[in-house]
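Table 4 source record.
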Amino acid sequence: MSQGSPPPPRPRAAEPPVDLGRLRIDRGAAPRRRVRGIPFLRLWILLGVAALAFLLRGPLLGLLGEGPAEGWETALAVREGAGGGVMANGYVVAERSASLSTVLSGRLVELKAKEGDVVEEGAVVARIESADLEALEAQAEAAHAAATARAAQAGAEATAARERATEAERRLETARLHFARLEAGIAALRDGAAQAEEEAGRLEREVARNRPLFEQRLIDSGEWDRLQTEARRARLALEAARSRQREAQAERAAWEGEVRTLEQTLVRARAEAAAAAQAEAGAAAESRAARHALDLAAIQVERTRIRAPFRGLVIRKDAEEGEVLAPTGAGNSRGSVFTIVDPSSLEMQVELSERRLAEIREGGPARIVLESDPQRPRAGRVRKVWPRADRSKGTVEVRVRFEPLPEGLKPDQAGRVEFLAREPDADAGPPAVRVPARAVVQRAGRSVVFVVRDGAAHAVGVRTGALRGTHLAVLEGLEGGERVVLSPPPTLADGDREP
């Protein structure tokens, strides 16, 4: 062992085992000190709790859903369905609406509709004064009629000029064809005259050659006469051919002059046709300008007539006859005459908190309850979630359409929308309110439940559906959340107060 290190510990002696059997509880301890007043405090606390429970027994049992409430046994009517817990209040609005006005300023002289009327697309619903514009339209119409007449006359003259030019072309072509035939005939006559001249020369030479023979009596007089006759005939034929050639040449010269005359006539006819066509084009342009002026005047007159852009319901009249109408509504003038909406485009408009926006989607199912008919929930579907939020309110506008659109729906009706987490079960029928079966009784031949409101029982007629277990479906009559009396006694009547 090195110097300075601590000595090793010595082993401890083994301890004897503990005998648990010898353990005892000392019951002879000093008695507890008794505190005066505590039992009385506990008694007062118990009495206070009991009194409070007695006073609040009605609300407590109402929260539990059943049990005696002010003497009646009641239960809550619960609406079943695919509710997602997202609800919002809103109003009925129209996707398609219009404030009817005109781009012109003027005094309103006629109203042809009133609130509640359904106007057809294109129907005139109001009119502002238009006498001056109608006079301008009549003036433009007269100018257009005159221009149209001048255009028609110019067109007729141009047509006649074109026909004269066509006729001149035809006559010139005919003359040229005849002149060409004359040329061909003259050439043939020239050839014939040349042949006749050759034949006459040959016969004359034959006569000259046979003359000494005739004088010597070497040929008889008959042959000599024949030769002379043929020679005379040949000379006559030559003279006739030359005469015909001269006549043909004279006719050719005449037709040559006719062709030149017809060529000049055609030039003049074509010039006249071109001038007439130009005059026709100018008259047509003038007519079109007059037509445009008339159209502009008609447009101005049409602007004094206020028409419905679509089939709509008149929900508000904004002006009276005699008031001045102006597009901007400046000063004391009115900006519009009527406000109309398309009844087929009515839908619910709600503002939903941004925190609940992730729980809905476009095209998702919804349930609509109108304040005017709270007993009949309507099926709906999310049509549009607005692309921007309201910074000041922290909400987003949502539009929900009805499926189908109910009859008698009016703009600005109040209601609430429940956005459903899933599509309603088609086999389960319409959403129903479920109540215990013993809450439904028969009174005067109809199914009735007694709803507790303001401390009194009110008989409500219902239409019941299928029974599931101990609860009965109520298809019409209840909205859900009402407190209904269970097993109402036969003596219970409408309006009885709670005992």
